[in-house]
User: Fold these one by one.
Assistant:
Number 1:
Amino acid sequence: METRMSDASGIRFVPLHAEHLPLLHTWLTRPHAAQWWQPTPSIEELHADYIAVGGEPNATRAYLAFEHDTPIGFIQCYVVMGSGGGWWEEETDPGARGIDQFLADETRLSQGLGRRMIRAFVERLFQDPAVTVVQTDPSPHNLRAIRCYRAAGFQDVGEVMTPDGPALLMRCHRS
């Protein structure tokens, strides 16, 4: 997924580059994000997780989301099957993609922006005919995220145990 112009949602996604890492790190230290993204990674850890080394793309693709010219959040996607680290070991669908996201500015929460960002991103993922389903796994205690994902078209599958602890598995199928 490359940089794209804004669609009707007014949201576009720019692949994460090394020069974005200080901004991403700052966002991750904000209380509304840090509560769910613990422990807060260092800039060096973010670089290792998201920036391609030696021309090899990382398994997780990370993006900054922009509303017009303003950076508003972070979103990442990955192929679920074979993601490693104890994640989704039972998954057999090579077309399943996972996403995680957060908004940068706490004052923009609960206003529909997260829903718009997720919908726009999922729409782009489904432009790839190989993608069959998009899933996410918020903490069962993260009620704001759960409401947001439901509003964006995700349905509850059920509670699962992940390497990070209990999570609510949610999925969005191609319409």
Number 2:
Amino acid sequence: MNQLKHIKAVVFDWAGTMIDHGSRAPAIVFVEIFHRQGIEISFAQAREPMGMAKREHIAAITEMPEVKNQWLAKFGRDCEDEDIDRMYEQFLPLQKETLRNHSQLIDGAAEAADTCRAMGLKIGSSTGYTRELMIDVKTKAKEQGYEPDITLCAEDAPRGRPAPYLLFEAAKQLDVFPMESIVKVDDTILGVEAGVNAGCWSIGITHTGNLLGLSEVEMQGLSSEELNTQTSEISRQFQAAGAHLAIDSVRQIEQTLRRIDTAIEAGSFPQRYEL
């Protein structure tokens, strides 16, 4: 396979990009931990801050007007740091349990990683999950044929996405520079924004990720018109967040990387590239 001239590394997100079609596991758990407080949130609300570190994610949900109003009505006060800490403590074991059933590789993910290696690329990964949560996830992914060179977790940066720090750390650990030789692949708005903020090429995933939020079976139940309508809206959101390209899934990674490499050869760079 012909190797790329300019791109040196790809950094993949995990849930919704490489595993867990529809990024179901975190959304399920966020809904449940708020339910345990007597607060009902929708899956759309649970998904809105997706890409943040999980404690920050919980805190962001508590700031949503509908959630704030529910909390005030139930407890007679605003949600406080101690409440967020308590929910986060509940989140971790429940998320670990849920991940046991949501660590299946997305169709084509292992092959996408193999293709990247065949093109001479290093493979990094990043996630809002903690290191503890990722132990079993990485083991199961390896059993299914996917093992990135590095995995960076929420604790590995002072601030999570959309801050660029996890990508800077990935560049350091992979020993890859400049930043425009790295491609970030993510299914969340915040993940795409992190790639842009880091000066990387940034690709959004439309079909398998958080924004569509459907399992493979659920997605297949949509008509072509329904899927195209929703995918077009997701692509629009990614473009507004600064994504250079949006693709259905990592199955399309080879042609996407070659397109970017060709653009670089022609003089493009992340800060000046038109879809």
Number 3:
Amino acid sequence: MSYAIALNKAWEELLGLSSSKELSVKFLADEYTIDCENRRALSLSCNAPTKDFIAILLLHYLTKKVQGLPVLTEEWLGFKELSGIEGYKAAFKRRSLEPIIRKYGRNPQELLSVLDRLPGKRVDQADIGIVLEAFEGVPVMILMWRPDEEFGPEANILFDRSITGIFCTEDIVVLAGIVANQL
């Protein structure tokens, strides 16, 4: 799948707002250098160029950061509460929720081990809950419910309402998938 058009547009938007030759951004457990002159996003942990879909997400975030990030609302939204989700429900479930359930469904307590390697904290929600700092000012809450006699394990991902002022729905789906993959 080619991301060339979206990537070029993301670069143009950022370069139209920032005259910096190089920017830096933390995303989950990695730090990235954004080389504006050569239009390259480099993962410092891997010392390699990032995948295009991650670069697009980084550029969209930095564009909003340069403009000024919205204030956190501390009002959490589920994916179903976001606007424009109609075409993304299946992808969100398949890329985000199902991998979490597969990995932690039998032992939700193990989700807490993620906090040893990703920036975040435990929260008193569901049976097990954590909030990860995906980007500065972009918290993502992951909730797990243990299976019982009637229901299997469940997972959900919630976002601070302010995320709608940073990312479009497609970016939120990509972000959730990356977060789930990092768990």
